[in-house]
Amino acid sequence: MNGFLINIVRCRKMIKSWVINKDKPGNISILNLFNRLSKYITTTTTSSPSSITPIGNSLDSESVHLSNQVYDIISRSKNWNENPSLLKLVPFITPLHVCNVLSHLNLDARTALGFFNWIETQKQRYKHNVRSYSRLLVLLIRAGLFSDAKNVRSLMIKSCGSAKEILFVFEEVRKMNKASEKKRLFLTVRCYNNLLMGLAKFSLIDEMQTVYSDMLNDKISPNNYTFNTMINVYCKEGKVVEAKVYLGKMLQAGVNPETFTYTSLMLGYCKNKDLDNARMIFKQILQNGCHTSEASYDTLIHGLCKDGQIDEAFELFRQMPDDVCRPTVRTYTIIIKALCGLGRRLEAFNLFREMGEKGCHPNLHTYTTLIDCLCKEKKLEDAHSLFNEMSEKGLVPGVPTYNALIDGYCKEGKMDVAFTILSLMESNGCNPEIRTYNELINGFCKAKQVHKAMALFSKMRERRMSPSSITYNSLIQGQCRKGYLNNAFRLLKSMSEDDLEPDQWTYSMLIDTLFKEGKVEKGYAFFRSMKEKGTKANEVIFTALIDGHCKAGKIDIASSLLEEMIAENCLPNSNTYNALINGLCKEKQIYKAANLVEEMIERGLEPTIFTYTNLIDELLKNGHSNEEALMIFERLLSSGLQPDACTYTVFIRTYCNQGKLQEAEDMMVKMINKGVQPDVVTYNVLINGYGNLGSIDRAFGVLKQMFNAGCRPSVATYSALLKHFINDTRVKERSNNDGLDLATSSSSMDISNVWKILDTETTLRLLEKMVEHGCTPTIDTYDSLIAGFCQGGRLEEAKNLVFYMDERGLLPNEDIYTCLVSCCCKLGMYTEASALLGNMVSCGHLPHLESFKVVVCGLYDEGNVEEAEEVFSRLLQCDYNKDEVAWTILVDGLLKKGHADRCSKLLDIMEEKGHQPNNQTYSMLADGLPDGAII
């Protein structure tokens, strides 16, 4: 109720913050919005979990009617099973209806039993629930049909598929057993054992102890099944001491342990990583006159593998045939998984092939293990081939299999393929779990497509999946990466409403983004408010804070924070020192940075590649000799670290700046020979180096290397290439006209002017030159070139390239459309931007909400109300998160621009189309503020 009153107050605040003219057509009164909000809050509060009737406790009117129809037919007709009316109802009868029919206590017991058995034969995959069994038992016992009742009771125990069901049966069976008038239904040892095994499936040990005590009280002697079940359930939990108590009782009862008993004990010891005792039990199997089994071997092999003792496990595996034990698919899979985990993929695949040769067919788990291994090693094509092979063999992929593939493609940024696999998963009737969504959400956020991640967040909600801290952290990081800080803080609020506590990553991401956006004071205030709330900062949060101050050039504060961190007994890690070292290097304080490295080492922290690269970079940038930098490089190598692309690029850039292109090329070769692949920055540096020397053909040669290596050129790549291409063309033209020597010409153009003066003809010549050098332009090429033109406001040239693409059968991708829309908006061409958004959606792309925001606001600014509302209605047909739509378009768009009346109208449209924002979003709108966040 308090929350409701607060929102009423917030709604009234709108009178002050929103200036709405009630007389204007299309405007909505404040009272209207107040009523709408009140209705929404009433709806949400009355549908709280506590007021929802649990499924299974009641039926709706239609279901009751169907149940009564069935009851009438079977209770009044001798040949009810031939009744046409009943046969028509069969497809609609569920266990809930059967339960309702059997609730009629005046139903003849034999008729009830006949119907109970008959309905199971009439429907494929039909399964009675435990309540149906319970209702039937009541009828059978009242009729004195004890023999039938015993059979039904056994079936009821075996039918349990969840902990909830077995607990219900546990209570029912015990009540039945205690009722003195039903002595003929006393539990037998077999029935007790079935009940124990049912409880053991869900590790319900307390209830199992109760059942065991009931056996003794009923003077029922436990047998080997009883003792083995008790020993096994304790061992599965690693409770060997308790298991051995039952082993003692087993021996006292004169029951000899079996292979299963020993195997259970081995399992318990393996769970506790007590492999010495596990080995000892394994030896006792033969010593005590039992035979080792495949399960015995599997248990010990699995224990050894989990402990990293793969070679000993392999020896045990090879001795199995000598013990007349044939390795099973589980045996092979255990070792294959262990080999994959240790990076011994080739050995794992050798064993996989051996399985087939020995007639042991891999199962779903085997394939999933190998697919996961290939994905982790970025061999996605091989993983997909194995997936297809598995499907061709009739094995149906499960959630873990799909998850492995989705995770692999997400980590490589191939989100289109990952999303296709999700669609395949759903079409095959395999329901995604929270991990599936988390992987996709994280992938989209890393690819800076947070709007798609938020759309998946909506799907999770629709499927009644509760988001985890991982879900929220990925989304908050995604919003931060795009610079949507307000949305990140809104998600922080939603996180709290879902009873999830922000962790170190949540706070560090928000602090880091505040500093990156130059909001130093707010970032520091957020940090302090966090501490005031009792949240203790750890090394991750301190590191983010230190890094933020360094990037803001506040080295002194960053240094004091390091001291504060140490004073609070929060030990800095390598990343903490690296942040400060990087800041000192940027401030040209190389010697202080070097001293900090020494302090770092004194604290027992190893410098990282980033540490050394920062020092090398600073030395080379500030005129120190190459030899000094190479000495640091040698120290890096001697520490056992492997330089990365950034380290090598620092040297390559310096050599290029010094005109030493051969040394730069040599360093590139050295880099590749060491297994380090150059990145886009490395190639850009080399292209620029050759361009500066007038070696334009060599620059195109580097571009060819990029293409061959699968490294996607960026806008910066083409900017550098075009700069030198244009300069080269100018030099040649002047040479032809004036007789100048090419090498001595001073004709030059700054890279920042490239996209301002570049024309379509020169661009097409560049594309021809690329083809001459074996670099066939791809969609990515056009994407980068169009992005360059759009950044320079050259819309016509960008459109010319789109037409040129179309002539070659290439369709614009999502990035190209986004650039064109953004360029149109910069030029105030909102109607054309609107048309582009329409084309984008019709081609199956999901535009960024930011694009829609700018277009809708721009159209309103022009007075084009009808078009703005049409664009907004169009976006609601897409799979956006409804709250993010309201945050971006309504709150950060219209409210910030003073269009409160338009905001209210669009909120109407949202509701009419069933896009109801949540309570938090309504409060934000009611407040009429640009954001409801801390910042």
From TrEMBL:
PROSITE patterns per UniProt: PPR (PS51375)
InterPro entries: PPR_rpt (IPR002885), TPR-like_helical_dom_sf (IPR011990)
Signal sequence segment: none
PPR repeats: 188-222, 223-257, 258-292, 293-327, 328-362, 363-397, 398-432, 433-467, 468-502, 503-537, 538-572, 573-607, 608-643, 644-678, 679-713, 778-812, 813-847, 883-917
Superkingdom as given in the UniProt entry: Eukaryota
Gene3D superfamilies associated with the record: Tetratricopeptide repeat domain
Key words, A-Z: Repeat
Listed name of the protein: Pentatricopeptide repeat-containing protein
Organism: Papaver nudicaule (Iceland poppy)
